[in-house]
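If you are new to this repository, start here. Below is one unmodified record pulled from the training split, so you can see the exact layout before writing a loader.
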Amino acid sequence: MSQRLKKIVRIPLRDQILDSIKRAIITGKFKASEKISEEELAAQLGVSRTPIREAIRVLEQQGLLEVIPKDGTYVTSFDSEQIKDGLHVRLALELLALKQSLERLSNLEWRNHCHELQKLLDLMFDAAQNLDAEKDAELDIEWHTTIIDASRNQNLSRTWRLTGLSHFIWSLEYRLYPLNQDDLLKHFERHKKLLHVFNEKNPEQCASELQYHIIRKIQDIDSAENPHPNV
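And here is the target side for that same chain:
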């Protein structure tokens, strides 16, 4: 009998809790420098404080929360220079992932990789049409995580997840520079252009476009801070 139903995936409770708190931070429901309470989080999520502590520990490692002894837990606050520093680190990781995936994947595997990116891109377009910035953030993270994982470099994938770099960057961008529908559609078009280059599988062009894709975010931040620079 052919497989026509999707298998049920059971997500561990600790992962659900982590994802819920992370989403609240990324989308700005918890503001920068806001103090959060284990007890209140546990009450809102209907769980004990033990998995809340585990989630806080992971989010602290990922740079989204700051735990101050004898004081409490706060949503991390960063300035634009730290955001740009994070983007440069992210660029280095993604360029390495791209290089290794181009070297290690067969032509068929590369086409399948691009097909997975296309499916995420289609969902990104739907999110833009629905003005769903939260969904767009999730898809953006998944899109670039797919690039990382295609490298087949477990150390690289582990580093990407351990640092929570993608969530860190999106959280800060989301809080500092809220997106409207035009921004979301522009965001979609940038990924569409990048995927078009990936489909050609020219290593130099792929690396150049990926670099431009991320560096342009730094330029966006500079433009937001200095809308009318002196020339």
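Two things worth knowing about this chain: The CA atoms of residues 23 and 138 lie 9 Å apart. The domain at 80-225 is CATH 1.20.120.530 (Four Helix Bundle (Hemerythrin (Met), subunit A)).
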